[in-house]
UniProtKB/TrEMBL annotation:
Residues 1-33 form the signal peptide. Keywords: Signal. The lineage of its organism: Bacteria, Pseudomonadati, Pseudomonadota, Gammaproteobacteria, Pseudomonadales. CDD domains: PL1_Passenger_AT. The keyword Signal applies. Residues 504-773 form the Autotransporter domain. The keyword Signal applies. One of its GO terms (cellular component) is outer membrane. It comes from Pseudomonas syringae pv. tomato. It comes from the Bacteria. This is Autotransporter outer membrane beta-barrel domain-containing protein.
Length: 773
């Protein structure tokens, strides 16, 4: 289309208007460019158009369709469209104008007043001022709205400034304040939302201040980074001293970060107040609140490492919710609420006016230091995570100077080493109230001992050394040393249980296999109670030996078993046993006498797993060896009608190698040889049923009296001596069946139960097969 002539050729009223704009439009290398008014019409310019400045009015439209450098545009109530590849010096929109900018650049600032702007894939800059201004006229109660997508705005003073009633939206965009005093974003009682963006300033990332009348401002950050290179990430302060403080709503979510070069992520000054809601984000830095200002900090499923520092006369309130963690110092904080798995991790002594716990916790720093938390009033229900040192008489301490209500738990750090002094430690004091305190897990584990929490006086709680008892860790290592004999005996059993009824095939050579399972309950009367469940298998082969009277068999065997130990409070152990052995069996068919001797070598792989009182799981592993022997003598007496009775005696003993080892929490355990000697007197009664063709079935019942002679197997845990004592008697009852399916093939099954003062076997089961040749 034909361009209109310059202002000098227009009617006088229009020329006067143009001349009034000359000072604003002609300060650059465009000083000799023409001023082109565009009124109530559509104009298109491109790279072939001359370098001009444009004044839009009366619903005009200017389409910039390329061109490396156009001049300035001033728009009132009009539309400016800047397409890809276009570049302007500057643009000013006011009075209901609209801007659409895509893939373009403005080099000397963009100002939008009571207008709308949509900027995509573009660059806005101002080397001496503000990159983007989102404004309103002073007397109006409406503002501007600008959205930046995949774009950037930078300026020496500020990347962007937003006034009250105006809004800025950022998506995948960057704001930068590059000058000595530059800020990335300044909100003058304005509002901004940023998603997947960055806001960086030489001093502050975001600076927020009030206007003379309007004080409210808001900032929402979603997956956005805010950086103040030398100052705070966000600073809320009056722009000048005569202005009031701001009232600011801050939302920080979805992995957003706030980084301040001076260590502060938020500063609130000049009588301002801020509510900062943080969700699903991890923040690092301090919150600084100056006198007469206020901050409410709410963390939801988030973490913060830094201090909340309120000066005298300032107000600071903190809410931690949904597994949030705040690690830092709270100074002059008015109230703290910790809910739903959230935690405050102290890094020094603390002093709070109000502390409310609803499923939250307070951690008194790490074990290297001991801190005191003073609280005027405590309420709710929660957990205090503390540490103590009995030897040095030092402890974390909770001091409630006013009223304490609710039900609270103390989780005191466990250790594998023993206290060096048996003195009680004062851990909680309350001046008034009906609060109740207890230990998580009921006790605290310190080395070989567990300590209880006792209340003394009206409202004082102590860890009591006088009521200590053996800790689960100590019980576990002692029990593990004790279990080798029961493992060994569970693998051994008697001749009949091991190989069935050998008389059915005349004591012929053969091979056999047996699988078995046992459950043992060892009572506290032995020193340390536990439950042991065992399963395993044995296999062997033997041959006839031509010597002496009767029939001699000599054989070898091997096998494996696994035993699981269960103790109090989740402590457990496991023993994997591998063994080889040799045996010799003599049968006299004329008299019925028999003898069975077994020599067995074991390798035990032992594992201890202990849940300590503070929830930590400790473990320790070791391996040792054992050797044992069994001698069994009896007589098979035939009665009428196929009945028989078989009295027998058995003497078995095992010696297990001593071992020194350490749990990974520092607990040391050692023992000398573990010994066991068991005698058994019993009888088996049954009946043989001949089914013909070499098939025989023999059900039977077995009873026995069993006695353990070994009384003293000492174990040292952290130089504390404990004794494993399984000595005593028990009764045994068993039933079984042995069957010959042919002259060569036999099967047998055996079930037993025993009970005594120290050892009970609720059940034992064995199933085996034998093939003879």
């Amino acid at each position: 289309m034909m361009l209109r002539p310059p202002c000098a050729l227009r009617p006088l009223p229009v020329a006067i208007k143009c001349l009034a704009l000359v000072p604003a439009l002609l300060i650059s290398n465009q000083v000799f460019a023409a001023i082109v008014p565009v009124k109530d019409e559509v104009m298109d310019i491109d790279q072939s158009s001359p370098v001009n400045n444009y004044v839009l009015s009366s619903d005009a439209t200017l389409n910039v369709n390329g061109g490396s450098q156009h001049g300035r545009v001033d728009s009132t109530g009009s539309m400016l469209n800047i397409s890809a590849g276009s570049a302007l010096v500057a643009a000013t929109l006011r009075g209901g104008s609209e801007l659409t900018m895509n893939g373009a650049a403005i080099s000397n600032g963009l100002s939008i007043t009571n207008s709308l702007g949509t900027v995509s894939n573009s660059t806005i800059a101002n080397a001496s001022g503000i990159g983007l201004s989102v404004n309103r006229l002073r007397d109006l109660t409406t503002g501007s709205s600008v959205n930046l997508t995949n774009s950037s705005s930078s300026g020496a003073l500020a990347g962007t400034v937003v006034t009250h009633f105006s809004q800025l939206g950022l998506t995948g965009s960057q704001l930068a304040g590059t000058g000595v005093d530059g800020v990335g974003l300044r909100l003058n009682a304005g509002a901004a939302q940023a998603s997947a963006s960055s806001i960086v300033g030489t001093v502050n990332g975001v600076a927020i201040s009030a206007e003379e009348v309007y004080t409210e401002a808001s900032l929402k950050l979603d997956s956005t980074q805010v950086v103040g290179q030398t100052g705070a990430a966000i600073r809320i302060a009056p722009l000048i001293s005569r202005l009031p403080g701001s009232v600011v709503a801050l939302d920080v979510s979805n992995g957003s970060s706030l980084t301040g070069g001076n260590g502060n992520m938020l500063e609130v000054t000049g009588g301002s107040s801020a509510v900062m809601n943080v969700s699903a984000s991890s923040l690092s830095g301090n919150v600084q609140v100056e006198s007469a200002s206020a901050v409410t900090l709410n963390l939801d499923n988030s973490s913060m490492t830094g201090d909340v520092l309120a000066e005298s006369g300032a107000l600071a309130d903190v809410l931690l919710d949904n597994n949030s963690v705040l690690t830092g110092h709270l100074e002059n904080t008015r109230s703290v609420a910790i809910n739903n798995g959230a935690q405050w991790a102290m890094i020094g002594n603390g002093n709070l006016a109000e502390l409310t716990l609803n499923g939250g916790s307070v951690r008194f720093g790490d074990a290297a230091g001991f801190y005191t938390l003073s609280v005027a009033n405590l309420s709710g229900n929660g957990t205090f995570i503390m540490d103590v040192d009995f030897g040095a008489g030092r402890t974390d301490f909770l001091d409630i100077t006013g009223s304490a209500t609710g039900s609270h738990s103390l989780l005191i750090g466990s250790t594998g080493t023993d206290p060096s002094a048996d003195t009680s430690l004062h851990v909680v004091r309350a001046a008034a109230g009906d609060a109740d305190f207890s230990l998580v897990g009921g006790a605290v584990d310190l080395g070989a001992w567990s300590y209880d929490l006792v209340k003394q006086g009206a409202n004082d709680w102590y860890l009591d050394a006088q009521t200590r008892k053996v800790s689960p860790a100590a019980a576990s290592v002692v029990a593990l040393f004790n279990t080798a004999p029961t493992v060994w005996y569970g693998e051994l059993s008697s001749l009949r249980t091991r190989m069935g009824e050998l008389r059915h095939n005349g004591g012929q050579s053969g091979a056999w296999m047996r699988t078995y399972g046992n459950k043992f309950n060892v009572s506290d009367a032995s020193g340390f109670g536990y439950q042991q469940t065992q399963q395993g298998f044995s296999l062997g082969a033997d041959g006839k030996v031509p010597m002496g009277d009767g029939q001699w068999l000599a054989g070898v065997m091997a096998g494996q078993s696994s035993s699981d130990l269960s103790l109090d409070r989740g402590a457990s152990g496991k023993v994997d046993s591998y063994y080889v052995g040799a045996y010799s069996t003599w049968l006299d068919s004329d008299t019925g006498y028999y003898f069975d001797g077994v020599l067995k070598f074991n390798r035990f792989n032992n594992k201890a797993r202990v849940n300590l009182s503070d929830g930590i799981r400790t473990k320790g592993d070791y391996s040792n060896s054992g050797v044992g022997a069994s001698l069994e003598f009896g007589r098979h007496i035939k009665l009428d009608n196929g009945y028989f009775v078989e009295p027998y005696s058995q003497l078995a003993g095992v010696v297990v190698e001593g071992k020194d080892y350490e749990l990974d929490n520092g607990m040391r355990a050692e023992n000398d040889l573990t010994r066991s000697l068991v005698g058994k007197l019993g009888a088996t009664t049954g009946r043989n049923f001949d089914l013909g063709q070499g098939r025989t079935v023999q059900p039977y019942v077995r009873t026995a009296w069993v006695h353990e002679f070994a009384k003293n197997n000492e174990v040292q845990v952290n130089d504390n001596v404990f004794n494993n004592d399984l000595s005593g008697s028990r009764g045994e009852l068993g039933i079984g069946i042995a069957a010959s399916l042919s002259e060569r093939f036999q099967v047998h099954a055996d079930f037993e139960h025993s009970n005594g003062d120290k050892v009970e076997q609720p059940w034992g089961a064995s199933v085996g097969i034998r093939y003879s040749w």
